[in-house]
Amino acid sequence: MKFFNVHTVEEVFNLIDDKIKPIEYTEKVLISNALNRILSVDIYSNENVPNFRRSTVDGYAVKADDTFGSSESMPGFLNLIGEIKMGEEPSSEVNYGEAMYVPTGGMVPDGATSVVMIEHCEEIESLLNVYRQVAPNENIIQVGEDIKVNELVLSKGKKLRAQELGALSALGILEVEVYKKIKVGYISTGDEIVTPDTIKLEMGKVRDVNAITLNSICKQMDIDFIYGGIVKDSEDELYRVTSNLLAEVDCLILSGGSSVGTKDYSVDVINKLGKPGVFTHGISVKPGKPTILSIANDKPVIGLPGHPVSALIIFKVFGTTILNKYSGNRSSLFINKITAKLTKNIPSAAGRADYIRVSLEKTETGWDATPIFGKSGLISTLVSSEGIAEIPSAKEGVLAGELIEVILF
């Protein structure tokens, strides 16, 4: 019988950071097809944004000095010399004692140092009454105030959201170089596993839950998921199927067979897939201790426990971290966290990190987290939960009323 050589959570994250390298393959795509893709190069601006002074309000371009002292009881008086239309250059500059109407986003004429909001003015034929003073540069966006020429706009490893694509569009950049979209292969293992479309279960059989849950998380991450089917407890068959699938994908995930029982072949098979091989077999966590992390010929291989709760939690905490690092994503982890107040005591063993399913309730002061206790095979506990509370290995439990971090599902 083999035994685990467990690593702490902190050690595992350090190993992931050290051993998982971003995929090397890149491609150029149109920004219209680049949503959620990961930049593989730094993007610098080739121009100023804006490249002219723009008004942030509907109002009148003036010299700020002309408005000093203006109020409701003692307005300032300026000569209205025209208006600026959107998309057009001003026909003249503004001198002392003059004002020119400018719409929001319109070009501010030379000579003007501020824009007075339209609601603080009154037109009387060609005369403008100003009822409020403005400071120099008030209500004006300066040339390059948004983005300066040669400025680093987006860094390598940034995940492109709608706002990043908008910034690229503003710069006239219509094509970007991104990391290749990674493809994950998945295999379920075990004599007891049958496909979800099995109508009548034989005694001792269970439907494959992990394939759909892990597929769903990959879809949320915009990662392609290839289902490799179910492999029975045969070391030769497992090696044949995994080696064939690994050749077609960028990362391989196995569910089940990660323990140390006599029929658990995953760690041996994974080690045979390629160098350098397994770097973690066993993490000091509950649930999910029998987790395998490996690299085969530069491709990550993840061996998850078979129980649905354990598999989902481990994949959420460690699997998504690996996939983010491997896909080149440096901008943020997929893990979203909030701080919540615990409503019940949670016992825990020192030296082991515990991940507890919790339900969340919004209160006037924030969020309340209520633990949902249950064994790792109970799917109903996942349905009832909105997140996972992490109890660090250094703590011997958490008391009701304490604030904890919750990883959101």
CATH topology description of the largest domain: Molybdenum Cofactor Biosythetic Enzyme, Chain A
Shape: elongated
Q: Share of helix among residues?
A: 10-25%
Give the biggest beta sheet. Answer: 6 strands, mixed
CATH superfamily of the largest domain: MoaB/Mog-like domain
CATH class annotation of the largest domain: Alpha Beta
Strand ordering within the main sheet: 7-4-6-5-9-8
Low-pLDDT stretches: none
Radius of gyration: 30 Å
What is the count of distinct domains?
4
Label the structural class: alpha/beta
Number of helices: 7
CATH architecture classification name of the largest domain: 3-Layer(aba) Sandwich
Concise description?
The chain is an alpha/beta fold and 409 residues long. The chain contains seven helices and 26 strands.
Write structural notes for this entry.
- The structure is a single chain.
- By secondary structure, this protein is of the alpha/beta class.
- It has 7 helices and 26 strands.
- The strands form 7 sheets. The protein has a 6-stranded mixed sheet, with no helix packed on it. Strands 16-13-17-21-20-18 form a 6-stranded mixed sheet, with helices on both faces.
- The longest helix is centred in the last third of the chain and has 19 residues.
- The radius of gyration is 30 Å and the shape is elongated.
- The relative contact order is 0.13.
